[in-house]
Structures
1.
Amino acid sequence: MKPLLICCLLAAATAAHAADYPDLPAGDAVDKALGQYLPVLTARSGIRLEQANSRRLQAGPHETALRLSGQQRDVRTAPSQQFNEWGVGVERAFRLPGKSALDSQIGEQDIVRARLAYGDALHEAGRELLKGWFAWLRERQRAQQWQQQAETLRQLLGVVARRVRAGDAPQLEQMSAEAALAQAESALAQAKFREQNAASELLRRFPGLQLPETVSLSEPLPIEQDAAWWQQQIVEHNHELALARADSRRWQLAVSRSEAEQMPDPALGLHYGSERGGDERIVGLSVSLQLGGKARAAAAEAARAQAEMAGHREAAVLARLKAEAANLYDAAQSAYIGAQRMHAAMQRVTASSELAARAYALGEHGLVEVLLARRQALEASLDAALAQLDANEARYRLLLDAHRLWPIDADEHEAPHGATGS
């Protein structure tokens, strides 16, 4: 029953994603593409690495040593004698209890860091996917605009040709219309080439992604909440900051561990031997303790310096993230306003172009004015479409960094795949 419920929830989430973001890849396609991204695969392997290292730390650095010895004793006093002698022993150093607990905490913290690094890799992959996706959409939009321009100029050429045949327009106008159409077709070919390059680059980086035949561009939406709210969300869910904090915690543990290492671990040994040909049997117990020197003190000082550096890096990351979050919010707001204004300008220029075309058909306008109006309409339409894409991308980037767009946390992303956890 539980797997069925999970499947239903995933299907519902995918459907909701498709409904909310029709100009983005489907949710399952995004999940697959992010999961196959090479830096993400590398980070996922890093989790298994740190899990193994954690088990190593829990086991400790010491192992049991087995010692075997054999010798021959030659007694040269009269009468001279020779005896075969041997010995066997085991020795092991024992980690002090405080060190064992610290090693376990360090191992657990390393797993936490690895999982945060995995989440950070997913986040960066999401950014790259979003960037590449919109780069492809922009080139695709340019190609569509030039396709529409070529079709319009082809229709205009038909009107010009009829007027030339009727004697209402000079042959020069037909040549001008043909030249304009040729330029548009050349620009269309170049735009299609750039679109194909953008698609190839996107699929090269995300081979599991499928590009749809058609994409419905979403109308830009205003940014809800204020800058302070978005800054809080981005900082609260940022993997890089969490990783910097985990590094600080890890080095604090390392400081405690290096200070504990000032007290060396004792080594206990038990040995058994046979001497004088078996006439003497020896059973012994040994205790050894290394004497700490300057190396241990230097290691502790180095760990304290590393902990201090980690604290400074954490503060620097926090300050940078706050600035970046504010910039993202401002960029999204500005892009939305720009898209609204571009759309209004495009409507006015398009209406003017249509009036010029009708006026030419009635013989009230020259071809030069019509071609200029068509060019202006194309540029305005393209600018409006690109502004729309810019606004949507800026908003999606804001949502992505606030973890409200795609599942880019380690636990969220691993749930459908059953990847190794901590």
2.
Amino acid sequence: MQFRHPLLLASTVLLLIAISACGSSDSPAAPKESSDQANFAATDASEDEGNSMIVDNGNNYSVDDFVSGGYKNVTQFELDTLPEAVDAWYGFHSQKDVELRFYESHEAAIEHGLESAEIAVGKGAVGYSKRPPIRWDAFAIVGNVVMLCELDIETCEALIADIN
């Protein structure tokens, strides 16, 4: 029997490796951080669904880094609802919606972006005017960017893998 979707197989293998590498968090409100640059799925901030990760890989990204990795930026947002953000974009990668919120540093992304990402994942994009009506199911904070991803954490992981 021949496997018809090699990308799906590779993604599944990477997911299984990532899951086996993840430890359990004592508290869903206090996600652990990883500084290992090669491990993108090192941190699970949600005990029940595994829909988030935080990785300090030492990088400061811009939207151009994501565009070079295949991200299609569609709409640049006003920053009035994102305190301390320096840039924000809605777009897609591999036919899935992704919102990118950029901050000055990894620490700023956690301090100013973590709570709003948790709210977006828990309640969807309801309440954000000027935002597409997207249901965000996962988020990642990688370097200085908060990523809201449609469907699952693999959407975030695939985009990060494509820009590295």
3.
Amino acid sequence: MSLTPALYIGHGAPLLLDDPVWSSQLSDWGKRLDRPKAILIVSAHWESAPLSLGTTTTGTPLIYDFGGFDPKFYNLQYPAPGAPELAARIKALINQPVTDQPNRGLDHGAYVPLLKMFPDADIPVLQMSIPTFDPERLFKIGQQLAPLREEGVMIIGSGFLTHGLPFLRDFSIDATPPGWSLEFDIWAKEVLSRGAVDELMDYKAKAPGMPYAHPTVEHFAPIFITLGSASRSDDPPETAIDGYWMGLSKRSFQVA
């Protein structure tokens, strides 16, 4: 039986939608993927413990969790079907308390990439919170969720491989990457190529470019849920997107 792939994606700000390069990369990636039955997405922009599930109702408004952008970005819509069956399945799989937040719509870490990858908004989507930043605990959550991939569910961790916004000096899309962003990206690429998840988990101590690459870690944390759901954690993932955006690493991949 073929497994639905699990993804780790960089999602960027809403301005991503106006960037022809990154938009086309996400769109092309989505076209290469088989259509999943449902999508479970974990975004850097929802930290909540205990582990929480967002709305399972079709038509819940999006969360416009950003400021200072063109008014058009506050009119974005992504009316994906709700996924109550997926929510129930997760509660059966996860060996920890799970709570519901039925009024919480998708945040931009979820709908910005989905607008490009699955623009028809016709696949049921459920968002799950990040309940901890501990890599080992997140990896175990990914392992518990792994059976969903046999059922046609695509698991997506949505973050940004480097996210040192306070240390950027050039905010143009084609800015030269700072040294800390380059160093962290190259290190992560090499570690992932060896399937050395244990080394990746120790990124705070071992990765060059820290803490500048991640002064806060919410954009890196979803990577461990994705890797935990892999069929073999030591297999290197398949890179789908690389390069830089405002100097930050866009590196995104899928695991088998």
